[in-house]
């Protein structure tokens, strides 16, 4: 959408799930000026450091400008024919389960839709998973268990109307900065209380009313303790509980847990419980610290149990609120981008849902069971079950747990295709075929942010060389595999209309992800589409979920789950005595393919580091800025020590951004064990164990 009289283009920031609106102004020479969109409902003109530096990241250094086949330059026809031929032959010889797609929350919804349709409806398997599996799969599982669908009830306005905000496992100040700024503004305006629950003292703790530095991984025990305290205080919402099943079982399980495992004092626990119970409007915000755990789904349900028991859900200023990490992680969930889901909140394990989507797509076959989740997908690539793998806009050789093993699995796979904007990633170097994709500022489509607002992403720059949008590359391969009509899309608007029509079908199956009012949009109306949050205000109690006590389980009731605390899969021991926490820093994004281009972003924290407590440093003879060596059964790393009491004794923290390209000794996910949550399949990225020593120690 171009504003009258100026050439600014309204789009969205490609980094985090806040989904800020941006205004882009191209200078006609490949440069771009970026400012916050004052009218976008996520940010009202504000941007964080990363969003403000977007203009510095669009240069063409390192861009992949043409396809490559076995390392040599090729044209699109040769590359696409080869991809289609190898996938077709693999399916013929080894069956649909022998191929896989590993995609990304960087994909736009239209890209995701085509990838899903190709894999689930035409290949006929569900081996498509996304790097969002590493980010919020436990929240998806928790929502589905409690509500019957993966529906996020919260909105950003709730954060501004709450009287108490509890951040659990979320460094919002660094990872979702504009949303954190909205909270700070609300604190100033109405005195909102802020509690941070995190083993590590982060920037989000600055100025918080309370920081509960619980022992890593004990969140479920804490919220079980809260549920018991709610019961003992007579603070249950008995009317709302009539719409919920499982309260007694949840309470019995919670009562047999001990919140003392949190390591918090009785006074700290009592103060938190009193504040939570005594405040009417509470929003509990959670992200990776909760999700990235072998008990992540249980932690989510322990939080949801407390909100369901008190009816603190779906009303202004109230609710549990999972925040997504990537710009279109939520869109990927809505469009069925995970191996265990179908589009529009339909279930792959429900025969009626599968049949409805199969009929809608009029496809030759349909996946009839969940596919391999990310960790299992790469295990299957390593042991030969997956023989053809297409990796799109993500760098699993760096970011997957047990990254060295994943690198070997990709290297050993018979046929690997990588679509990306650059050939300079650890994963792209392993590809047999490299496909040049359009970058963020060159693409048209839609994204959904953490509060269900769907926004248009718009192109402001031409794609360089012969780079193409992902939906087009995927559709080309679909056509060349023999499904010409099904993938005969001319533009993203056409894909969006098909998706919107499918959502209407989901509406008839009891789902509220219904954007079918957009199914007849003209191309020009799609190009001009303003941000909107689903559901439309006419449905669901003015666009709010669950305050009406209506949920998506067959009986219409929510579920409270009996949760028992489980410790992380790896416990510190004599050989590997430290608990390794990994996470993001303020000014870098994922594996730095874009943010590393900005000198001012690099200036924040210029090199990888390891946070270690002063007592541990003293004991190991580590001085500030010393190099330290980490080692465990998965891998090794060398990092510079930052001695700080922000981490507890016995805990260490390292950022996850540096790669084999940027700092070969600092690929921290090489040390993360591939332990996963049995329900969500999400890896435990925050609780591996490791040995730590000064680099030159004997
Ligand atoms: Fe971009 Fe997130 Fe920053 Fe907003 S808060 S500008 S979406 S990185």
TrEMBL record:
GO cellular component, one term: membrane
Cofactor: [4Fe-4S] cluster; Mo-bis(molybdopterin guanine dinucleotide)
Domain 4Fe-4S Mo/W bis-MGD-type: from-to ranges: 6-62
Top-level lineage group: Bacteria
Family to which this protein belongs: Belongs to the prokaryotic molybdopterin-containing oxidoreductase family. NasA/NapA/NarB subfamily.
GO biological process: cellular respiration; nitrate assimilation
Record keywords: 4Fe-4S, Iron, Iron-sulfur, Metal-binding, Molybdenum, Nitrate assimilation, Oxidoreductase
GO MF entry, a single one: molybdopterin cofactor binding
Name by which UniProt lists this protein: Nitrate reductase large subunit protein
Species of provenance: Salipiger bermudensis (strain DSM 26914 / JCM 13377 / KCTC 12554 / HTCC2601) (Pelagibaca bermudensis)
């Amino acid at each position: 959408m171009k504003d009258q009289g100026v050439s600014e283009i309204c789009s969205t920031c490609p980094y985090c799930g806040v989904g800020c609106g941006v205004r882009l102004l191209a200078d006609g020479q490949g440069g771009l000026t970026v400012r916050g969109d004052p009218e976008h409902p996520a940010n009202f003109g504000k941007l964080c450091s990363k969003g403000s530096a977007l203009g510095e990241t669009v240069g063409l250094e390192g861009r992949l400008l043409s396809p490559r086949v076995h390392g040599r330059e090729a044209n699109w026809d040769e590359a696409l024919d080869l991809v289609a031929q190898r996938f077709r032959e693999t399916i013929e010889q080894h069956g649909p389960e022998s191929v896989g797609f590993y995609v990304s929350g960087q994909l736009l919804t239209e890209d995701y839709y085509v990838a899903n349709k190709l894999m689930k409806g035409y290949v006929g398997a569900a081996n498509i998973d996304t790097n969002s599996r590493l980010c919020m799969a436990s929240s998806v599982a928790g929502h589905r268990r409690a509500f019957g669908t993966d529906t996020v009830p919260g909105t950003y306005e709730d954060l501004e109307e709450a009287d108490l905000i509890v951040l659990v496992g979320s460094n919002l100040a660094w990872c979702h900065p504009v949303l954190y700024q909205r909270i700070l503004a609300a604190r100033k305006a109405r005195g909102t209380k802020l509690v941070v629950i995190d083993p590590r003292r982060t920037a989000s703790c600055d100025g918080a009313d309370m920081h509960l530095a619980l022992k890593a991984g004990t969140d479920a025990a804490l919220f079980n303790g809260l549920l018991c305290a709610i019961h003992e205080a007579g603070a249950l919402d008995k009317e709302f509980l009539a719409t919920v099943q499982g309260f007694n079982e949840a309470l019995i399980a919670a009562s047999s847990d001990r919140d003392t495992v949190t390591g918090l004092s009785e006074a700290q626990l009592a103060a938190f419980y009193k504040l939570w119970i005594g405040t009417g409007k509470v929003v509990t915000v959670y992200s990776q610290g909760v999700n990235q755990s072998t008990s992540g789904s249980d932690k989510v349900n322990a939080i949801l149990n407390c909100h369901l028991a008190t009816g603190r859900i779906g009303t202004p200023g109230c609710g549990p609120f999972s925040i997504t990490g990537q710009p279109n992680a939520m869109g990927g969930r809505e469009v069925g981008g995970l191996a265990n889901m179908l589009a529009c909140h339909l279930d792959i394990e429900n025969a009626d849902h599968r049949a409805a989507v199969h009929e809608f797509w009029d496809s030759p076959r349909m996946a009839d069971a969940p596919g391999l989740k990310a960790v299992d997908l790469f295990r299957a690539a390593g042991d030969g079950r997956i023989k053809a793998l297409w990796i799109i806009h993500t760098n699993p050789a760096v970011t997957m747990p047990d990254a060295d093993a994943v690198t070997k699995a990709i290297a050993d796979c018979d046929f690997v295709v990588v679509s990306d904007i650059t050939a300079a990633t650890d994963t792209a170097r392993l590809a047999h075929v490299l496909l040049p994709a359009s970058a963020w500022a060159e693409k048209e489509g839609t994204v959904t942010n953490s509060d269900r607002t769907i926004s248009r992403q718009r192109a402001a720059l031409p794609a360089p060389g012969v780079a193409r949008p992902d939906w087009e590359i995927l559709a080309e391969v679909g056509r060349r595999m023999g499904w010409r009509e099904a993938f005969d899309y001319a533009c993203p608007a056409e894909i969006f209309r098909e998706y919107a029509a499918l959502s209407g079908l989901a509406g008839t199956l009891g789902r509220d992800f219904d954007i079918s009012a957009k199914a007849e949009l003209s191309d020009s109306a799609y190009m001009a589409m303003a941000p909107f949050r689903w559901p439309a205000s006419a449905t669901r109690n003015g666009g709010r979920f669950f305050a009406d006590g209506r949920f998506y389980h067959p009986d219409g009731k929510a579920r409270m789950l009996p949760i028992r605390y489980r410790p992380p899969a790896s416990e510190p021991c004599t050989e590997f005595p430290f608990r390794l926490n990994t996470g993001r820093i303020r000014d870098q994004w994922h594996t730095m393919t874009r943010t590393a281009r900005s000198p001012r972003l690099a200036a924040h924290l210029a090199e990888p580091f390891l946070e270690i407590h002063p007592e541990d440093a003293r004991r190991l003879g580590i001085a500030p800025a010393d190099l330290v060596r980490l080692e465990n059964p998965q891998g090794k790393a060398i990092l510079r020590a930052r001695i700080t009491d922000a981490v507890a004794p016995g805990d260490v923290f390292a950022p996850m951004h540096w790669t084999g390209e940027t700092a070969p000794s600092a690929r921290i996910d090489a040390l993360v064990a591939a332990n996963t949550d049995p329900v969500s399949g999400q890896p435990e990225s925050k609780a591996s164990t490791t040995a730590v020593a000064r680099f030159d120690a004997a």
